[in-house]
Design a protein that fits this description.
Pfam families: DUF502. InterPro entries: COV1-like. This is DUF502 domain-containing protein. Keywords: Membrane, Transmembrane, Transmembrane helix. The chain crosses the membrane at residues 18-39, 59-82. This protein is of the alpha+beta class. The chain has a domain at 129-233. Helices cover 46% and strands 17% of the residues. The chain is built from seven helices and seven strands, in the order H-H-H-H-H-E-E-H-E-E-E-H-E-E. The protein has helices at residues 10-46, 56-60, 67-83, 86-99, 103-120, 152-158, 196-204, and strands at 129-134, 141-149, 165-170, 180-185, 190-191, 218-223, 228-233. A five-stranded antiparallel β-sheet has the order 4-3-2-1-5, covered by helices on one side. Strands 6-7 form a two-stranded antiparallel sheet. A hairpin with a 6-residue loop joins strand 1 (129-134) and strand 2 (141-149). Helix 1 crosses helix 3 (67-83) and helix 3 packs across helix 4. The chain is flat. The two termini are 51 Å apart.
């Protein structure tokens, strides 16, 4: 006895086509919207400070999207170029010395500068490894980004029992821009093979976008003078 082929109703086909269209169009539309929203935000900050004789909109009587963003990028690049020579460094150091004398401003400036230097440093080793820790209770696992091993005072206070501690950052879902900095025993940390980008996609999607994975042997090793925790894959 042969089985009859399943008949798909017109409504089911219509729903499938609609969901397929949503999968194609929604990410594209959101990407375009966010891009233009960022361009408009940058233009609203920069364009009012552009002299009229240097603003193309003054001559052509039309608004050129992205002109403010382009000028901001050019100005930031020029400032970076000037800040790398002797005279520029002297000016920057003088400005920072003035900020460092202001009680509240110096704390904010130092914190922001340290964050940007860490995030934008070309050879930064921060958050290159993804792992799992048991949180909030045994048997439940949370995704974390591994920073480095505990050093200094924290290492002296936490490593008293001989267990090496590791600094990890645990962001929430679906916005991984905030979270908790925690120090956990290295033995309690499970290193994953996925990249930080794949880990971020997993967090933002709420667990829906799982990265592809092939079984390999992973082990934690400590390399470098800063004792960074890295992922070693056995061939």
């Amino acid at each position: 006895m042969t089985e009859k082929p399943e008949i798909i109703s017109f409504a089911a086909r219509l729903r499938t086509n609609f969901l397929t269209g949503m999968i194609i169009c929604a990410p594209l539309a959101i990407t375009i919207w966010l891009t233009f929203a960022f361009i408009d935000w940058a233009d609203s900050w920069v364009t009012p400070y552009i002299p009229e004789r240097y603003n193309p909109a003054y001559y052509f009587n039309i608004t050129i999207p992205g002109m403010g963003l382009l000028i901001a990028v050019i100005c930031i690049t020029i400032i970076g170029f000037l800040g790398r020579n002797l005279v520029g460094r002297s000016v920057v150091n003088f400005g920072e010395s003035l900020l460092n004398r202001m009680p509240l401003v110096r704390t904010l400036h130092k914190s922001l500068k340290q964050i940007f230097e860490t995030a934008l440093k070309e050879k930064s080793n921060s958050y290159k490894t993804v792992g799992l820790i048991e949180f909030p209770s045994p048997g439940m696992w949370a995704l974390v980004f591994v920073a480095t091993e505990a050093t200094g005072e924290i290492a002296a206070k936490l490593n008293a029992n001989g267990e090496e501690m590791v600094a990890v950052f645990m962001p929430p879902t679906p916005v991984p821009t905030a979270g908790f900095l925690m120090f956990v025993p290295k033995s309690k940390l499970k290193i994953l093979d996925m990249t930080p980008e794949e880990g971020a996609k997993l967090l933002i999607s709420g667990g829906l976008v799982m990265p592809d994975w092939k079984a390999v042997d992973s082990a934690m090793t400590v390399t470098g003078s800063n004792s960074k925790v890295t992922n070693k894959k056995a061939s």
